[in-house]
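Quick one: structure tokens for this chain, please?
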Amino acid sequence: MHVVDPSAYTPPYDHAFCQALGRAGVDVELFTSRFNYGSVPDPSAYSRRELFYRRSHSSDRVGQRARVDLALKLIEHVPDMLRYRHAAQAAELVHFQWLTVQPLDIHLLPSGRPLVLTAHDVMPREPRPGQLRAQRKLYRRMDAVIVHSAHGRARLLEELGLDPDRVHVIPHGVLEPWAGSPEQPLPDELRNIEGPVVLFFGLLRPYKGLDLLLEAWRDIENAELWVVGMDRMGASELKASAPAHVRFISSFVPDSQIPAFMRRASVVVLPYREIDQSGVLFTAMACCRPLLLSDVGGFPEVAASGAARTFRAGDSLDLSTALSQLLNDPETLAKMTESARRAGEGKYSWQEIAARTLTLYERLLEDRWSSVSLSRSR
């Protein structure tokens, strides 16, 4: 089978997913592009082919150079999708993780074999004109759509009217993007800091609720808040007006240093205004960290495992109260740590996810062969 992520949007997920399927006995090849924002693990139990955007896929440029890179990427997109469609003849089943230009891609998909799409972003946050219609058509073109939460499934059924038999919930797995590399310690300036630390980790974007967290932090004492991630929203005013005991680490954090930040945290907080599921969440779970989550999307489903507590999304007072309670309750934090460990070894383990995915693949292949046999008998 083939796993396809043309723009290499989620290398840690792709690696863990393909490796788990390979270890379960599947012959897996990952089709993707070069990833220029950090290292990626060497393939293990699967093979990787960098077929897409071989000329235009660039590093993190800005301004005019970024616009030129995007134009070059779009020029390459159709030929590369057609090249992949030819390569797909060798696959029994194709599983897309992402599709880069959905209105075009629906016309460029391979045929003659089951097609699966994982909807990592179930719906666009700010849809452009015609985008929802294109997404509905793309989803309906798939033999199966995988979502990471019951909440995501409900949205696709209610908002896009998809066939319930084609939408399947398979959880996101724990992520260890540092796997295979020697772990690095914290930066020198952070190693001797004492006391509890609350961690906000990941790219700074408006929907992630950093402003809400900073407002809630005004009532927190005897702890530090670390905001770790590159600014993608223009957060200079938030930084300038941040309350005491907030530390911004805006430099790039290599994958090998992520565990040091996670394990230093007493609590990892995700005050998102909207989401289905989050790679940051499952990276924290891999490090057995207690989580404080807004009650949006699929987050309450994770909280049901005991690894997380939720607060009312958009409510800074409720967030502040929850932070205070957790920071002053080491017994609860210890129980949440143990629950995170159990969840990461159980429901959210890649072994479990591979088993559930294989069950879906087998059903799709049986349906396809039954359809072919029926057609031939006629």
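The CA atoms of residues 4 and 96 lie 5 Å apart.
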